[in-house]
Amino acid sequence: MTTPTTLFEKLWNAHLVSPESDTAPAVLYIDLHLIHEVTSPQAFAELESRGLSPRRPDLTKGTLDHSTPTLPAGADGRLPFFTAEAEHQVDTLRRNCARYGVELFDYDGPHRGIVHVIGPELGLTQPGQTIVCGDSHTATHGAFGALAFGIGTSEVGHVLATQCLLQRRAKTLAIEVEGELAPGVGAKDLILHIIGEIGVNGGTGHVIEYRGSTIRALSMDERMTVCNMSIEAGARAGLIAPDQVTYDYLAKTPRAPRGADWDRALARWSQFKTDDGAVFDRHVHIDASKIKPTLTWGTHPGQVAAIDARLPQANDPDEAKALAYMGFDGGATMAGRPVDVVFIGSCTNSRLSDLRQAADVLRGRHVHPRVRMLVVPGSEQVKRDAEAEGIDAIVRAAGAEWREPGCSMCIAMNGDLVGPGQLAVSTSNRNFEGRQGKGARTLLASPLTAAACAVAGHVVDPRDYLNADVKEVA
Ligand SMILES: CC(C)[C@H](C(=O)O)[C@@H](O)C(=O)O
Ligand code: SF4
């Protein structure tokens, strides 16, 4: 009998070109290389300086997301780029893709969007693959049972040139989540809670496999939200084994295999799961039924609290610094704190189901006059689907801004900024000092919580906004 192995080990073994030794990392074959405008220019320049071309341009796909404006082109047809550098990055990716025959989901095309949103929705992301991107949230694609790493710019160059990646083998961490999530509690609350439990270094050196009944009950959108933030727990990647939910999602995507190819793919994909009796290096157990709507209160994604919990009493210098930056008193609760900005978007929470949750709160209600609210779909596809069901109209009628797809206020590289000292409730994944603008303060939260805060004008328990009947809640 063969030894039981984990999903990670199966993915690793299936892509091993040469194993790791004491002196050298392993060489892994890469099935899909996603590129964007921020981390690819130097990699292409390096390639050019060595007289090389991409080894597999057909397995390389580009999109424009970080530096692109979310406001439409002006009357002169020009896009309102925030900086000349942003415009240059966009031009450079366009030039590089055209020159080397790399498919680019360009600004004016139907498929542009945040790299981690478009890979899955096009069906480029598939179970059993290795996927890399010069972007730390590449772990998102692990939701499909793909081994997906964020890589640095020099590695982007290596993968372009060789279609291979040097890697040291990671340890395995099983996060077993059991129980039902309560109404008003979603995948974002779950992953924030998990990071709160294991800490921002809790996954260091490990690939996490999320397992258990709670994970199996999640939709693909929700699974992506969970895997997306694996990096915020320090992990190299996050994984969820593919199942019928995965296959049903993929069957509707334009680039998934068809006919006999689909049957062959399915037979292969279904092998990518952890065998009974396989051994993980570590286990963590989470009871999902105990989780409440959860937000970050500090300046890293491990500083979290349930909406009704008291914040810590500055137990150490880091907590004291975070509380001071955020303007919170130790021992206080977050509820009631006035909110200036609400951002619904980012590769964590900008898919159709996220926008629907926000729209359910906004329908028939108004954004509080103090609050500026931005809703930024993750892709052209999400935008089209949302508009087809009238979400844009609900957003606008509520007094929020409906924007063009992109990373936007998640990283604030495109001019969508939170002002100094302002408090933003954001569905994104990072909350370090100044992430959303100089001096900006960020509370990471679910789309439901963020939308509820926009209506209330202060931090509020989203469970008060769940009822379908529209009523004003104080
Ligand atoms: C710009 C890019 C390199 C960066 C990342 O790697 O994550 C960005 O996407 C982010 O979220 O901070
Ligand atoms: S949406 Fe935010 S986290 Fe995701 S890739 Fe863009 S900048 Fe990075």
UniProtKB/TrEMBL annotation:
Reaction(s) catalysed by this chain, per the record, are:
(2R,3S)-3-isopropylmalate = (2S)-2-isopropylmalate
Gene3D superfamilies attached here?
Aconitase, domain 3
Return the annotated region ranges for Disordered.
46-76
Q: Name one Pfam family in it.
A: Aconitase
Q: By its UniProt entry, which InterPro entries does this protein fall under?
A: 3-IsopropMal_deHydase_lsu, Acnase/IPM_dHydase_lsu_aba_1/3, Acoase/IPM_deHydtase_lsu_aba, Aconitase_4Fe-4S_BS, Aconitase_4Fe-4S_dom, IPM_dehydratase_rel_enz, IPMI_cat
- Domain Aconitase/3-isopropylmalate dehydratase large subunit alpha/beta/alpha as annotated: residue spans: 9-457
| Domain of life, source organism | Bacteria
Quaternary structure and interacting proteins, as annotated? Heterodimer of LeuC and LeuD.
Name-wise, this protein is 3-isopropylmalate dehydratase large subunit
Q: Which organism is it from?
A: Lysobacter gummosus
